[in-house]
Amino acid sequence: MIFDVNISWGVWPFQPLRFASVAKLKKSLLKNGIYGGLVRSAEAAFSPDLEHCNRKLSINFKTDDNFIPVPTISPRNQEWKHLLESEIRFFAVYPSYHDYSVLSIEFAELAKWLENKNKVLIVVVRQEDERGHNKLCQIPPVPVTEINKLGRQFINLKIICLNCYFGELKTLLTDVPNVNADIAFAETMNTIRTIEEQFGHQQIVFGSHTPFLYSKAALMKLKNSGVSEGIFNAIASENIKRILK
Amino acid sequence: MIIDIHTHNTLSETDSLISTAKYNNVDKIVLLGNVLRFGYYPVEEQVHEINNDTIKTVKKYPDTCYGFCFLNPANGVDFTLAELERCVNKYRFRGVKLEVSVNCRDKRLHPIMKKLSELNLPLLHHCWYKTVNKCPDESTPSDIVYLARRFPTVKIIMAHLAGCGYLGVDDVAEYPNVYIDTSGGQPVASLVEYAVKRLGASRVVFGSDAPYRDISCQLGRIYGADLNEEEKEKIFYANAKELLKI
Q1: Model ipTM?
Q2: Between the CA of residue B140 and those of A17, A227, B117, B156, what are the distances in Å?
């Protein structure tokens, strides 16, 4: 049973995303053994109206389903104060796309609220490989040094970082047990075994970045890794359950 | 049967590369050499050493590995052609690998291309459309088009589908001597299907770029693509078999 923390829904200007309907997306994920996941709005990266993106997401994905809608918030949009009073547990941020630093004063206020209310912060480090960006729309990744520092400042704030490269994991995860990363972009030979050897598996969760990437790629990365059943289960679903406690 | 047309042998990791390939049911791999071992512009002795490493690995795993001769076209023509002939005639290498030493529009590629045409062997050329981190002489798909038009009898495998993107696929679509390997970059969804739609399944070949990439993840991009079994078989095996003449 695999829980996927990195699923998007919506349109993207630079890639025709697969799946014409929510039903088809869910069917494909379930067929691949992904029983649930965290779904965020792809459009929220560029949209000036996050409320609209979040509403659209919540219409398509219900909170009582295993595919949980994750609203996007920004310290530059005060809607987050209202959302944090709700039962919602996960909140996504696109710092680079929304042009702020996770170390800014404005973000510190948001982080403090999230920490106090035991919410989980999802940081989208990048959406695409920067080398392939359109020349007129180059969005740098969120510096993992800054996320590591954020994790040190708010030691009870649970953070999940999406789409980090393998080479960024050491900087990101060192000395911050509250910071976690998904496996969608992390790649080297025998990725999962190498991650286990170098960083352990406690801070690693399964993420596929569907529909930007083929779900099967992340699945095979985990399933063909040759790690023990315990490590497999931890990455597939147990770690995210622990984060939620 | 699966053939991986794009791997690199770094001697310290070669055993691990072979065992990982086998674990993932990849039967044959093409070794392109540890092409960046001496940086972007290896001199003749360094090119010779890189190919010697490939020869060692092919000798150690003759049932699994095929070699490609790595060259830097900026080196002397006499050396370059002698090195190519050494690798092909003595060690049965199946093609040539060019990286980023020289852009593929450069005339210094011509003697190599003429020799490949004569020997009826393919060229596998690094290729990418990059917005950032571009090497000074790195080739793009539009550069590959230039080469393909000039040497229509040479089969050119344009590396790195995800790096070339939709635009790169469109660039080479009209040139039947250009193939695309699926290696490199993230497993961007829908791109394999797009390449098959524009080029046909007979011009797309599986490559992983291991050990820099995870073979299982790279296989997932083909298994996960919305293609029929016949198309996948061509990508995994039949096209490479024809290119490598095995």
Answers
A1: 0.95
A2: 25, 38, 22, 13
